[in-house]
Amino acid sequence: MSATNDKKVVINKRLKGLPRESLEKLSQTELIDKIVQLEAYNFQLRNLLQKKLTDQDRNDEEYAVLLGKDADSERVSKEERVSGKSQKQRKFDWSSAHRRHVLLKITYFGWDYQGFACQEDSNDTIESHLFRALTRTCLIESRSSANYHRCGRTDKEVSAFCQVISIDLRSKHSPESQLEAAALASEIDYCGLLNRVLPKNIQCVAWMPLRSPVYSARFDCVSRCYRYYFPRGDLDLVAMQAACDLLVRHADFRNFCKMDVHNGVTNYMRNLQSARVAAADSERHLTNSGYDMYYLEIQANAFLWHQIRCIMAVLLLVGQRKEQPSVITELLDVDSNPCKPQYTPAIGLPLNLFRCDFRPTTTRSANHPAAGGATEAEDDAMDISATENEPPSESSDLTEWIYSEENLQKLIENTQCEWTQFSVKSTMIRNVLQQLENLLEENFQTKEKVQEQVILLQDSVKPRQYQPLLERKRCESLENRIEHFVKKQRLIVKEDDQKTA
């Protein structure tokens, strides 16, 4: 290993923006150069936005300002077309509003969105829709003042049954009485209010009042559990489970992820708590054909970028008998294999954030910054030693999830509509497949059935000649990547006892 082992690698924050004191020390020429650089960067961003935004996004007031349009005149002309009277909405008076700190449980199907987290060049993310709904319903004043944390960041196309956020929401009741039974019963219907303005495939399932104002869905989560759905095809499920058993350990998973060194992620140790392959339907519904659906359920304290998709890619190779289960042990031995073999992660569509477990009491101090106190690199690197699944008690910061019967019925109705749409498509495709398979057998008397149901998960990659993973060309080592970004002044290597400014 390199000399960086006994040192700390951090992002060079000076590149992201100088403090006022440092700016005041710059010369006029240096300030002009910085302004020119920033204007050029803004010009590039505007061009990206114009290419990627939809017509609906361009009509949004926020983006109209960014694109240089006169949002006020456009809004006035629109109001004049609706009626001669002013349609300007009276601003909500936040000075007298009460707030309470809560967890919100969100479910969404991500295949139509560009991921969960907000992005500079897209308005079509789960988080963007969520914050538009929160501000439109006057549940928050702004994101910056909402004490907001998310449990996890799901990628493009990835779904979630149990995405959890912590946030301060407007309340009907004063802080002293918010946890009383009467106050909880008469509180704002957070889920029902949000679901009326959210898209039907992004919905709020439940909310939980919290006793601590600094409890964080991000830092107080002890484990995340994902499910990756896949058809059986011709996969050897026994071999895949044997490989799963070798994954369960506290280890360096640098060979099972996309390295994010440029963002300061240099710690790839993760505690993978469980991994198993299970049938998606009950045993009596299995047909023992390649069309039976299964899932990989995998749980850890936190995950690396594309970690599950990389794990699934290797498990599929094991299931296809192209690799032995022992390849897992080989790839986790970073002393023998410090550089990741080149392979394509499995696609993100079948992935679902299925469950999150939280510690009963936060480890954060009461004077901890409300949000944004840690870098993204520190987000998923936290190791957890607290007891999982411990029921809430009087001393716990957690309470109980609050559900609404009417809201759950509406959620089931919406999800049944999604199920009907995709089940009809699936049944039609399955009937076509049956006819095609019968034609192949009748006309060519083939002995072996076509069993390529999983090829899509491998990004439709089917090489003529398979090359074993450990014999493939390797990516750069972690040490080489760190050295590269240190030379570019993106990262700084400091001694462990040196304070990071």
UniProtKB/TrEMBL annotation:
One of its GO terms (biological process) is mRNA pseudouridine synthesis. One of its GO terms (molecular function) is RNA binding. Belongs to the tRNA pseudouridine synthase TruA family. Residues 245-358 form the Pseudouridine synthase I TruA alpha/beta domain. The keyword Ribonucleoprotein does not apply. Pfam families: PseudoU_synth_1 (PF01416). Gene3D superfamilies: Pseudouridine synthase I, catalytic domain, C-terminal subdomain, Pseudouridine synthase I, catalytic domain, N-terminal subdomain. This is tRNA pseudouridine(38/39) synthase. The gene is LOC108085164. It comes from Drosophila kikkawai (Fruit fly). The keyword tRNA processing applies. InterPro entries: PsdUridine_synth_cat_dom_sf, PsdUridine_synth_TruA, PsdUridine_synth_TruA_a/b_dom, PsdUridine_synth_TruA_C, Pus3-like, TruA/RsuA/RluB/E/F_N. Keywords: Isomerase, tRNA processing. GO terms for cellular component: cytoplasm; nucleus.
